[in-house]
Amino acid sequence: MEPMPEQSPPHAYPDHWEADVVLRDGGTARIRPITTDDAERLVSFYEQVSDESKYYRFFAPYPRLSDRDVHRFTHHDYVDRVGLAVTIGGEFIGTVRYDRIDDRGRPASAPADEAEVAFLVQDAHQGRGVASALLEHIAAVARERGIRRFAAEVLPANNKMIKVFRDAGYTQRRSFEDGSVHLTLDLEPTEKSLAVQRGREQRAEARSVQRLLAPGSVAVIGAGRAPGGVGRTILRNLLAAGYTGRAYAVNHAFDEGPATLDGVPAHRSLGEIGEQVDLAVIAVPAHRVPEAVADCGEHGVQGLVVVSAGYAERGAEGRELQRELVRQARSYGMRIIGPNAFGIINTAEAVRLNASLAPESPAPGRIGLFTQSGAIGIALLSGLHRRGAGLSSFISAGNRADVSGNDFLQYSFEDPDTDVALLYLESLGNPRKFTRLARRTAAVKPVVVVKGARHSGTNPPGHAVPVSRIPDATVSALMRQAGVIRVDTVTEMVDAGILLAGQPLPSGPRVAILGNSESLGLLTYDACLAEGLRPRPPIDLTTAASPQDFRDALAEALADATCDAVIVTAIPRVGEDGEAETGDGQVLAAALHTAAAGGSAKPVAVVHVELGGLAEALAAASSTAAPHPRTAAAPRTASPEEAADRAGAHAPPATGGPHAAAADRTATADRTATADRTATGAPATPPAPASSAAPGAAAPDPLPRPGRIPAYPAAERAVRALAEAVKYAQWRRQAAVPGKVPELLDDTIDEAGAAALIEAHLAAAPDPRGHRLGPDEARELLGRYGIGVRPTLPAPDPDAAVAAAARLGYPVALKTTAPHLRHRADLGGVRLDVADEDALRRAYGDLTDLLGKPAELLPVVQAMAPRGVDTVVRASIDAAAGAVLSFGLAGAPSELLGDTAHRLVPVTDRDAAELIRSIRAAPVLFGWRGAAPVDTAALEELLLRLSRLVDDHPEVVSVALEPVVVAPHGLTVLGASVRLAPPPARGDLGPRRLPNY
Predict the structure, then answer these.
(1) Which phi and psi (to 5°) does residue 529 adopt?
(2) Best CA proximity match to 282, nearest among 214, 349, 341, 236
(3) Contact between 22 and 42 (Cβ < 8 Å)
């Protein structure tokens, strides 16, 4: 039961608590604080709640709310008493309320940190996840107001509410008192509660996209009788694709009474249809879109595709129209693709949806495609069609005002018809979320991304998302860390996509090359070396080779245990009369398919020149094949969110076509569903981190019949696609056993002491822009995490320099710290191995004579460190991407050549090992040209310690350790810079919400 609240001063309306959320069934709703203006809405809502639900809420028959009840439930101070409502179409469908209480259950104010919480959800909306979403948001509100625990009284028969609390993932205690279940929830987020939250988010967002792509009925609003209009074109494309649902044409200009257009019912409005419409395609001028959206919302439409232009791509006025469009659609629980969208396609036999401007629906296939550009979408559809590749789904999101690439990843992860996800992105609305979702999806199927607008520093017109300030090279590195295959062009995307969708993953970088052209074979060999592969010497079959010769050579290569992939090069065969035979492509394709069908599960690609019909014939095997059965993959390790939210949820597909779990070696009925052959990697310099692959993996069973063999017109394109597959396969294998943070660090880290120092520094300098620590302050803070920084002593004159050296001990280094000379030994601002006082005084005089007065140079003295390799380690927080750890060699390699590697924080032991090995200059650390290898283990530990520091304390927004001298035994940090600031908001740790508009 709820206690009567005490009177306390009201606080300002907290509009930052407002949020749009996706519910379990894919529909949207709005969560907002309840205000004094909501009395009528509350009464109307309560009247629609069943007597049973009222009884569960109040523990007694409670047919109606009294005036006193209404006042109590609509008047809040937003601190000790808070009420939230879930609304659709402006009306309440659920409410939650908390009242702060003391340890005896009486109304209280801060510092009391417990509150009683109670929910009520309209019966018609129970089962949609309304209460779960409310619990996430009311818990976040409570934490913000200093409340740490919720108490709830629930009747034993109220199983649904008990389940909401039980499944939330919070630490809880339960007891049975006075005929009710007493629950206490600790509101501090746990790994389990975050996993539950993300699992629910994943399924809800995937379902919201699925509802758009598989509607039972579609209305095209704006389809006119005149030919050639956008709406009419979409309607005809919809019908030409053989859409299996009900289709309608809607246009207010139609005559009254029954009518048809292109054979489907034509109506003046949705209300005249008289049946449920799941999806509306809006193709009317922008000024008429609000009327169409309202008509859709009032008649229960589930989702919208808005192809109308005239929004954010037109400037500030258009951006406001776009925001209002999103707000209006979400108020009715609808999601939007667009505006300015090209449309959507679903080739599933049960749907056959082409609600787009593409005149021809692509063939069914295993590739899912998402683009933020209609023009790029057209190019990709055309490119895939020419290569004979089919699609499972296609979304061209236009201005991406609502449904985004993140939503498409959520859908692709669960879609059993998608084996490969291709995305053309021009902006990342939530980079943290994108990398999290991409890592999860890439663990079961490839994700290939082209990122447009890489160097402009701004978002494309129409994309109202935060601008990340991190360089594109860093974005690329972070994508790679998440398992994303990042390519530069749409051509490379198609090249990689058709290989990944039609061939098994390679088990390593060893490549066999065979063909009837020595020159083309050598070009392929060189391309392999350039991409980091390990090609075997090409096998020249000579220009007289017959299709039978190709078949035998390919079969032999596939049976060879020393190669992991095969590239076949082919030019027109020269006949006995010396004439080139260009028309034997189909015969050669049949021979290659025969060899591939009887060989081991290794990827095969073909490079061809002027061979008529070869590419089409190679593609035909998969495009005409009957649907293949899905192989049951070996169990994969569940992610934390899956493990926490497994109860009651359908498991995501573990097969992923050609990319099933690595342990699965069962052959399928089609080469496109071959078991995963993840890369084992090859010994290289520098040595790679320890591999988690199981040695001696069994060879796959032979495949009973062929699948698609991708063909390329140039050796470089085939090799680049294969190289991406090799790197992705290696990432898959390593991701199967996640890295960890060694526990040995815990004994040498003083997290509480560091927190106290940070709090004191920020309190002493309360500047929201941040505060840079002095050298001694930075050394003290870093020391709390076991990062020692060699002290420096100021030397404003020669005598001070001598005194400092006497204190530190010879030999010493004398160096300037002026900003224009810092870390610039090439300008003469550093003197090393100064052995005694006389040498120090001479060095001091030389320094000031060469570069200027001591007041300008700011000289310091520092004890010499053991000789080694100078490196630089940095950590910084980007508002959009999060905390990033960077590593490179100091000086020209990182500053001039940009040879720097990056990883998202927190990094694991594997991340740290890969970080130092992924720069191009890494051989310098491992004994290049006879030098002694340095202590990379000490360097990896330093990276882990710094990662822990910025992960534990988000107030540490920037750290630079430069130089870090890594010797054969140990390392020395010679300089450190630390900046503190109030931590940026972490949207990924809060309750589920769609981007605000």
Answers:
(1) -60, -40
(2) 341
(3) no
- 428 has pLDDT over 90: no
The two tokens of residue 275 are 């049946």
Q: What is the DSSP annotation of 226-280? A: STT-HHHHHHHHHHHTT--SEEEEE-TTSPSSS-EETTEEEESSGGGT-S---EE
C-alpha distances in Å from residue 738, one per residue of 145, 640, 912, 938: 37, 12, 13, 21
**Helices of type H across 784-836:** 798-808
Q: Quick check: 268 pLDDT over 80?
A: yes
Burial class (CB in 10 A: 0-12, 13-18, 19+), 586: middle
Question: Tens digits of per-residue pLDDT, 714-763?
Answer: 999 999 999 999 999 999 998 888 788 777 677 789 999 999 999 999 98
Answer yes or no: is pLDDT of 361 > 90. no
Contact in structure between 870 and 889 (CB atoms under 8 Å) = yes
Which 3 state secondary structure label does DSSP give 893?
Answer: helix
Longest Cα–Cα distance of the chain, Å, equals 106
Mean pLDDT within 543-556:
93
Per-residue tokens: 636:
């994969």
SS3 909: helix
Looking at per-residue pLDDT, the higher value among 33 and 372 belongs to: 33
Beta bridge partners of 476: none
- Integer angstrom CA distances of residue 250 from 284, 304, 354, 891: 11, 14, 17, 66
Q: Would you say 535 and 529 are in contact if contact means Cβ atoms under 8 Å apart? A: yes
Tokens matching residue 269? 């409005």
- Residue holding tokens 């258009």? 318
Q: Can you give the pLDDT at residue 465?
A: 54
Which carries the bigger pLDDT value, residue 528 or residue 435? 528
Report d(CA 424, CA 411) in Å as an integer: 16
> Residue 602: beta bridge partners?
none
pLDDT score of 69 more than 60: yes
SS3 at position 121: strand
Backbone φ and ψ for 296, nearest 5 degrees, come out as -65, -50
* DSSP string of 546-587, one letter each residue: -HHHHHHHHHHHHH-TT-SEEEEEE-PEE-TTS-EETT-HHH
Question: Mapping DSSP to helix (H, G, I), strand (E, B) and coil, where does residue 840 land?
Answer: helix
Residue 692 has pLDDT above 90, yes or no: no
pLDDT tens-place string over residues 636-681: 334 433 443 333 333 333 333 333 333 332 333 333 333 333 333 3
Helix H or strand E encompassing 117? strand 114-121
10 Å Cβ neighbour count for 71? 12
Mean pLDDT value across residues 487-499: 95
> Which tokens hold the place of 860?
């310091």
41 vs 73: CA distance, rounded Å? 11
Residue 839, Cβ density class (10 Å: 0-12 exposed, 13-18 middle, ≥19 buried): middle
- Look over the chain and give the mean of its residue pLDDT values, rounded to a whole number: 85
Q: What is the DSSP string of 333-400?
A: T-EEE-SS--EEEE--TTT-EEEES-SSPPPEEEEEEEES-HHHHHHHHHHHHHTT--EEEEEE-TT-
pTM higher than 0.85, yes or no?
no
d(CA 87, CA 125): 11
Query: How far is the CA of 531 from the CAs of 430, 480, 751, in angstroms?
Result: 31, 16, 44
CA 74 – CA 616 distance, rounded (Å): 68
Give residue 360's pLDDT. 84
